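Students often ask what a holo structure prediction actually looks like on paper. The answer is less mysterious than it sounds. You provide the chain, you provide the ligand, and the output is a string of discrete structure tokens encoding the 3D arrangement of the protein together with pyridoxal-5'-phosphate.
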Amino acid sequence: MTQNVLDRYQRTMTNMFGTPSRALVKGEGVYVWDADGNRYTDFLAGIAVNALGHAHPALVEALTQQATTLGHISNLFTSLPQVALAERLTELAGTADGACFFANSGTEANEAAFKLARRYGHSTGGKRHKIIALENAFHGRTMGALALTWKQQYREPFEPLPGGVTFVAAGDFAALDAEVDDTVAAVIIEPVQGEAGVRNFPDGYLQQVRQACDEYGALLIFDEIQSGIGRTGTWFAFQNPAITGSDEPIVPDAMTLAKGLGGGMPIGALLTFGREVSELFTAGQHGTTFGGNPLATATALAVLDTIEHDGLLENVSAVGDYLATSLRALPGIKMVRAYGLWQGIELDTEALAQQGQSLPEGGLAPKVVSKALEYGYIINATGELTLRLAPPLIITKDQVEPLLRDLPNIIADAVADAN
Ligand SMILES: *Cc1c(COP(=O)(O)O)cnc(C)c1O
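The corresponding structure tokens follow.
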């Protein structure tokens, strides 16, 4: 069955993603099933998207209710869930006079942020024409977001990209400080870099960046597309002391959201903080047909309600700590960078080298990922030696236990295959 679907896939789908590893047919809670009936525990959640896991009753109920009431209306009109979601997000972000723009994806949220930065540049007489982004940053695949994305292999096939973007070394404040002056419209940063392997910055870095932006009047934009909506144990990473190094949140001028927000429904958001930044866009300057439609916003509201009512932020912290502590004690693992249920795992190759074992071609981590599938786990690799876990926020200690038991064998099998 799976083979049949994959064959048809290859005949009819653009080869954008390589060959998918499985065809999935069903999901429930933290589990999904493939077309051959095999069950997998989902430690990736559709890349940090399925915050409530699969087919969560609250999400199904909200979506069904909305679909049977009012599905799509265009932005010539508004709807109750759209306004309620904007109120809810600004409240959770702690800005009384902020504003939301809704899109359909992360990259679109960042396109809006890019245009916000340009608007800001124009509003200051056009002298602010620079945007600073970080090395190893990932902000999306459309042309604007791609211009902010570091990886050469993503960018080069599509050049020329929108200009004015300067990259500086990630986590190196002196390097950033050397570029920030009054020609800079905005600095865009993921508070923890997700696609780079869940990588944080040195203590105090984000605070220093905030201060430099204040000093030179540049906007600070946080891309919280992966880190937001409870992923790290707080609503947003900018509120997480383990990430900011401060009990006070490091409040950005704008923030982008997507992934976890819709719990699987496509939605993105640009949230601006304070009146001045929130008034940079005027009517007609940007737009979207689908963005913020009743289906997506009603579902997102259900995600936020469920996170709150079910105490999922506490669950993220508790299960996240347990998972990280347990992983650190396993053989074959060198280091775990853990922020709630968002973890980057560095595999240990020193012991392997000492035993004279060679590493699989293409990297050990991708091999561990495919071995894990055979064992019934969905995990992810962000590099040759780096694994990423981003399970649903509802996952329990009992549900992470089997992976902890099997992971050493999975790694050993992946190594054995290469030797
Ligand atoms: C996934 C991601 C994006 C892009 O979101 P899409 O919905 O895939 O367009 C942008 N920024 C960050 C930090 C992301 O993790």
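The chain has two domains: 2-56+311-416, 60-309.
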